[in-house]
């Protein structure tokens, strides 16, 4: 798989931990076990666009007061939504 950063063929699927700012800017949360791409050549780890969109959409559609300081990605994605879809797009 080609790395988007160094364009080598050393990228492979992995998981990592990221810190994400809430939409209102009040704080950030730690999300663990997020699918990512990790490059064995340059060492960069990054989320693909579809994962970023899922996180951003979920943060807009849930009650963020339910979220503590950290959360596992699979639990985060399963949180009940206040709205059925993102009307802000």
Question: What's the number of helices?
Answer: 2
What is the radius of gyration?
A: 15 Å
Cα end-to-end separation: 31 Å
What do the pLDDT scores average to? 92
Can you tell me the overall shape?
elongated
Could you give the topology of this structure?
Blueprint: E1 11-21, E2 28-39, E3 45-46, H1 49-61, E4 70-72, H2 73-78
Parallel strand pairs: 2-4
Antiparallel strand pairs: 1-2, 2-3
Quickly list its features.
alpha+beta; 4-stranded mixed β-sheet; about 90 residues; elongated; YokU family protein
Description:
It comes from Bacillus songklensis. This is YokU family protein. 21% of the residues lie in helices and 31% in strands. The chain has 89 residues and is an alpha+beta fold. It has one domain. Strands 1, 2, 3 and 4 form a four-stranded mixed sheet that branches. The radius of gyration is 15 Å and the shape is elongated. The mean pLDDT is 92.
Give the structure's gist in a few sentences.
Pfam families: YokU. The protein has about 90 residues and is α+β, with helices and mostly antiparallel strands. It is about 20% helix and about 30% strand.
């Amino acid at each position: 798989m080609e790395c988007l950063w160094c364009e080598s063929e050393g990228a492979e699927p992995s998981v990592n931990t990221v810190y994400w700012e809430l939409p209102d800017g009040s704080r950030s949360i730690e999300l663990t076990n997020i699918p990512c791409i990790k490059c064995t050549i340059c060492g960069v780890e990054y989320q693909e666009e579809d994962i970023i969109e899922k996180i951003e959409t979920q943060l807009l559609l849930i009650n963020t007061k339910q979220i503590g300081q950290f959360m596992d990605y699979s639990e985060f994605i399963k949180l009940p939504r206040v709205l059925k879809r993102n009307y802000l797009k």
